[in-house]
Amino acid sequence: MDDTIDVEDDGGKDLDDDELFEELENDDFDMTNMREQRIEELREEVAKRKLMVEHDHGSYKDVTDEKEIMDITTKTKHCVIHFYHTDFRRCMIVDKHLEALAKKHIKTKFVKIKVENAPFLVEKLQVKILPCVIAFTDGIAVDRLVGFDELGNTDNFSTTMLELRYKTAGVIEDDSKKDKRNQVKKSIFGRDYGSDEGTDDDY
Q1: Which stretches make up the Thioredoxin domain (predicted)?
Q2: Does the model's pTM come out above 0.85?
Q3: CATH says 59-194 is which class?
Q4: pLDDT in tens, 41-50
């Protein structure tokens, strides 16, 4: 018995490179559609960035009304709020770094407010030591920087160090997709923000 299996000849033949490219050119797949889709995506991104700039994203704004601060934290996806006092030198150091980050990361809103203009929030958020910078995502506090202890307890920390902190917290975009640190998220009116220990200015 012959165990040979006959394979039906489909009458076809191998295509050389030229014939293969010709087949691809005749295919229904249209690269133009992909190009147009990408252009539309870029247009949407430009429009979104323009809207952000119009709403003070990309700048470091000094807010005088604490109600506006509350609106920002609840209506903005990502924001960083600096509670400061004009007499505290380290607050001015923080300003320099946050202003640089605001220009670089326009999708995150950076603002500051004098503690004397925010008595309600100062009490609710337990702002006792300055500088105090609280970052929010969707109205939830995800990071709290009190003084410079976590920045090496030095006035000469780099903007990059602060930038990495906020990337890790997920407050600004991190292209490297690093894992977010594990931390408890608390609402803007939450309690127990942790220890206020530090060597910076008591308010």
Answers
A1: 71-150
A2: no
A3: alpha beta
A4: 776 666 556 5
